[in-house]
From TrEMBL:
Residues 1-33 form the signal peptide. It comes from Rhodanobacter terrae. SUPFAM superfamilies: C-terminal (heme d1) domain of cytochrome cd1-nitrite reductase (SSF51004). Keywords: Signal. InterPro entries: Haem_d1_sf (IPR011048), Host-pathogen_enzymatic-act (IPR051200), WD40/YVTN_repeat-like_dom_sf (IPR015943). This is YVTN family beta-propeller protein.
Length: 339
């Protein structure tokens, strides 16, 4: 999700698990390090022991879409049977994956071909290919505008795709290397991390223009991003200095900064529990409790090798972490709150 020569791209480094014993299928709910989580299962995944990237959940259909970057496929996993349903091939070096409920459609960013593909979740076939910018990565959907926004990380832009026609309709220059992009349903605006400028940039989908830039003091490599519409807080993960920056989007100011697990990447939020997950390339995960405007650290601990991707089911409160190699094969570590 980030370019080479940054901590997040050093995923090939040796990893020595110290707090977890690898399992192959069901687990007897062991505790995971210092985290208040228990492992439910380590479910086998398909393909090689290569890198995984973003994940996106369709809780109604009990399907989890996983970007298997190293194998250039989107893996479809059934969360009820805990089995792989299919692999959608020919998504070159897939990074981002996003299920859009309103459209009943899956989008994936194919970094190897600098395009975005649309996938039908019924047939699991690619239905469209849309040109993007240089190194497309994270994606966000602005529902009122019927537009998909794609972070072109190396190109320093966001590509805008009209989902009604699956065509590129705009390219927005952001002035620096772009991290993750997210939609804010409160303002109905798009926000994107501009890593090399240490800024959070705001885009109006009505005009596809940058309308504000928020400086992020203390940010280094602000890549990961999650926006909670209830609290109207933006959570920014900084991969180069292991920080979580919390931004109040109403007042447009940084309200707190925390230390997190090394090389933080993907964030996920369980609204029912108020739990914010920050998953790191180091295999560590940091957990925070969010209540209103108050954010408190809960714990950090080793979750599994290269556990830098997380998706959360807010109904079951289960969290899903694709692991590149566990006991010599790719597996999906499934956790739930420890009882």
């Amino acid at each position: 999700m980030a370019p080479q020569l940054t901590p997040k791209r050093r995923w090939a480094m040796a990893f020595t698990p110290v707090l977890i014993v690898a399992a192959t299928t069901a687990c007897s709910s062991p505790a995971i390090g210092h985290l208040p989580l228990a492992a439910v299962a380590d479910a086998p995944l398909t393909g090689g022991t290569t890198r995984w990237d973003y994940a996106s959940l369709d809780p109604a259909a009990h399907r989890l879409y996983l970007a298997h970057l190293g194998d250039s496929v989107v893996t479809v996993f059934d969360t009820q049977t805990q089995r792989v349903v299919a692999d959608v091939p020919n998504v070159s070096h897939v990074h981002g994956v996003l299920f859009v409920p309103e459209l009943r459609r899956v989008y994936a960013s194919a970094t190897g071909t600098d395009e975005v593909v649309a996938i039908d979740p019924v047939t699991l076939k690619i239905t469209a290919r849309v040109p993007a910018g240089d190194y497309p990565d994270g994606m966000a959907y602005a529902s009122e505008a019927h537009k998909l926004y794609v972070s072109d990380e190396h190109g320093g832009t966001d590509t805008v795709i009209d989902v009604r026609t699956n065509t590129r309709v705009a390219t927005i220059p952001l002035g620096g290397e772009v991290g993750n992009t997210q939609y804010d349903p409160v303002s109905r605006h798009i926000f994107a991390n501009v890593q090399t400028r240490r800024q959070l940039v705001e885009i109006d989908p009505a005009t596809d223009k940058v309308i504000s830039r928020m400086d992020l003091p203390g940010a280094e490599g602000n890549h990961g991003l999650y926006i909670d519409p209830v609290t109207h807080l933006a959570f920014v993960a900084c991969e180069d200095n292991n920080k979580l920056i919390v931004v109040d989007l109403t007042s447009r100011r940084v309200v707190s900064t925390f230390d997190v697990a090394r090389d933080p990447d993907v964030l996920a939020f369980d609204r029912g529990l108020g739990w914010l997950y920050v998953a790191g390339e180091s295999g560590e995960v940091s957990l925070f409790h969010v209540q209103g405007q108050t954010v408190d650290p809960v714990a950090s601990g080793v979750l599994g090798p290269n556990a830098h991707v997380v998706a959360v089911d807010e109904v079951t409160h289960r969290a899903y972490f694709p692991l590149k190699s566990l006991a010599g094969r790719p597996q999906l570590r499934i956790t739930e709150p420890k009882r």
